[in-house]
Amino acid sequence: MPELAPPDAAVDGRRLFGGECTFVLGAADLAQVPDSTLPEIAFAGRSNVGKSSLVNALTGRKTLARTSVTPGRTQQLNFFDIGSRLMLADLPGYGYARAPKKEVDAWTRLVKAYLMGRPQLRRVCVLIDSRHGLKANDREVMKDLDDAAVNYQLILTKADKVKPGPLAKTLEAVKKEAATHPAAYPEIVVTSSAKGTGVADLQAALSQLALPPG
Ligand code: GTP
Ligand code: MG
Question: Which of 23, 26, 95, 138 could bond 46 through an S-S bridge, CB–CB 3.0 to 4.6 Å?
Fold first, then answer.
């Protein structure tokens, strides 16, 4: 995916994500968010879309971030230090989750407050299930990010669950819609954490936002 990153980015991406990755902390409220100066990338999206699985796929560790078949697995903002060059934030999902509404509303508020008020946030990866495309609550988040001028990139997940024809159609529709959003990155990355599709491309792209290798 040459539009996303220069040619040597693939090497840097592999090196960065193949190196040290450590869980920093899980924040249940904004006061607990780590005091860090590293460039940060957040993974947002509807419950169960595959955020934690993608963090694991990127870092090549199956259990770094906890995943579950039950929507609402991730209930805190979980921070991961990648080689002291980049911070990843795995966020609780929005929308349906198998948890009390009061709790879901509280995470949604927390996620929004974090996304709007984190100066070192370089990009939000907004994950979209390849089977479903964009939904109303994705559009809401996209509008909030547009309004706050926080850059984001749409990422299709679970591509292994969809046949190539429908996948291409969804990609086209999502791309078209992204073009109408001022803070949306024009390139969409198609991924499958299960099969590893798109993971190297995303590693390469994200490594370009990290501090230089030291
Ligand atoms: P919450 O934390 O609950 O919001 O969910 P999440 O977005 O972090 O999703 P998670 O990574 O926990 O994955 C949810 C379910 O989808 C799990 O059963 C995963 O195994 C599955 N899953 C995630 N990515 C993929 C993928 O690329 N392909 C397939 N087939 N399943 C996936
Ligand atoms: Mg999760």
Answer: 95
Sole residue written with tokens 């259990």: 63
What pLDDT, on a 0 to 100 scale, did the predictor assign at position 2? 47
Dist. CA 214 → ligand 2 center (Å): 31
The CATH number of the domain where 156 resides is what? 3.40.50.300
108: region left, alpha or beta (phi > 0 left; psi from -120 to 50 alpha): alpha
pLDDT at residue 97, rounded to an integer: 66
CA triple 71-75-77, angle to 5 deg: 125
Q: Which residues line ligand 1 (CB under 6 A)?
A: 45, 47-53, 67-69, 71-74, 92-93, 157-158, 160-161, 192-194
Ligand that lies nearest to the alpha carbon of residue 193, given by its number in the listed order:
1
Asked whether residue 2 is assigned to any structural domain, the reply reads: no
pLDDT at 3: 53
Query: Is 184 within a domain?
Result: yes
Cβ-contact 111, 91 below 8 angstroms: yes
At residue 19, the pLDDT reads: 94
DSSP assignment of 49-81, as one string? SSHHHHHHHHHT-TTSS---SSTT---SEEEEE
Residues in the chain where the model's pLDDT stays below 50: 1-2
